[in-house]
């Protein structure tokens, strides 16, 4: 089957065509960095308007690149949440209109499910169940991915997400926006041992993550004016790595049966984080899987792929399906602890 995927939940507008045989026929993406840079972060209203301007030309360009028409597509998948609701609605309403006009089924995709299943687009050998570290701008979770739509959340953050910590650190250090890649570049030039920074919840018996204290420590280190931005960035990144590894190690111990260790989400594009997780997997004799960098940060191929996985199971949605600003992957775990969803 051929699936058209649409993504518009944050500050990337994207359209892609992906087949159930894992062929990415076309993918188009328009970032909005320039529009948001003056504000040092994503402004929801600016994002929604930019999605309106960018989306239809991107869909047309994707179809053109693939040499297809809408009639050739088997289903239309769009992010229906979680995310900035204005942007989500732009993508979802566009998908509904196309589905209605072309008489195609609609698939409402959870953006987090897009991140969670994309490792299987990149790696055909990756089977359920796998242990997933989902690290992105709004989330930091450990999940046992048991199947499509079947997620057991083992841990989440009690305050900031990992990507949020990167973005705030970049802002504090004046490294620019978007923050993750800027911090990674600066960290490569610094000494990770020069500044002593905390590792919140390291070794804790509870499973969760915390990054707010680390961010405050970055602020104090900056104000002390004793170290370069590069050294602070390197210290920060190493602290994040230590926390991610410690928490993931704990999850490996309590989640026997996982066939692989997998990382996904925008922060999974970070080289040293990928390398540390790969080492951790090797130490536990687990296969390691991570999508290529461009499939880690937001894109539409991941939404098309999640759509393909759902379509194969007959999971389509009615045209009146609602956009959801919040949409936990594991609603049961979310009842127990709502943070980080
Ligand atoms: P969510 O998926 O939780 O809704 P989002 O869609 O905004 O959030 P993603 O696009 O998945 O987030 O990821 C963006 C985040 O990834 C940003 O916080 C960004 O700073 C971070 N990021 C991107 N590249 C890197 C990198 N190389 N190193 C560290 N962080 C990175
Ligand atoms: Mg973005
Ligand atoms: Fe995302």
Q: How does this structure look, described?
A:
- Strands 3-2-1-4-5 form a five-stranded mixed sheet, sandwiched between helices. Strands 8-7-6-9-10 form a five-stranded mixed sheet, with helices on both faces.
- The protein starts with a strand and ends in a 5-residue tail after the last helix.
- The longest helix is centred in the last third of the chain and has 26 residues, at 229-254.
- The protein is built from twelve helices and ten strands.
- Helix 9 links the parallel strand 9 (261-264) and strand 10 (288-289).
- It is 44% helix and 18% strand.
- It is an alpha/beta fold and 341 residues long.
- The protein has helices at residues 33-36, 44-66, 85-102, 111-122, 162-172, 179-187, 212-224, 229-254, 271-283, 293-296, 301-312, 331-336; strands at residues 2-7, 12-19, 24-31, 75-81, 106-110, 130-135, 140-147, 150-155, 261-264, 288-289.
- The chain binds adenosine-5'-triphosphate (ATP), magnesium ion (MG) and fe (iii) ion (FE).
- Fe (iii) ion is lined by residues 111, 115, 136, 266, 298.
